Amino acid sequence: MDTYDILLYGSYILIGVGAVLAILMPLIKSLDNPKSLLKTAAGIIGIVVLFFIAYSISSNEVLPKFAASPFNLTPGGSQLVGGMLITTYILAIIALGSIVLTEVTKAIK
Fold it and tell me: pTM for the complete prediction?
């Protein structure tokens, strides 16, 4: 094992520790104010509902070149990826719309 491998594994460990702390620390801090947890839960539930709507309208069609090796894509996997893409598109449109709306209301005030 050379230096690159050691540093790569060290970076994996640091990314994992950072991800765990990024999730746990706000949860610990929000225990002081439980109402903030309700807002977080509502946001998560909203995104999950949006994903299930996007998943249900996405297609499960797989082209023959993606069904073979090296991709081995199944119809279920294709529908999952399609649902994720549609969810991403909807959230991006909402974000851009919110930015435009905020700038327009700032300009009016």
Answer: 0.72
Cis-peptide into 70, omega within 30 deg:
yes
Cα–Cα distance between 99 and 109 in angstroms, integer?
Answer: 16
- Residue 90 has a CB neighbour count (10 Å cut-off) of 14
Burial string for 52-71 (b: 16+ CB within 10 Å, else e) reads: eebbeebeeebeeeeeeeee
Predicted confidence band of residue 71 (pLDDT cuts 50, 70, 90): confident
Amino acid at 59: S
Instruction: Please report how the helices 34-57 and 75-108 are oriented relative to each other, as an axis angle in degrees rounded to 10.
Output: 120
Give one word for 40, left, alpha or beta, with left for phi > 0 and alpha for psi -120 to 50. Answer: alpha
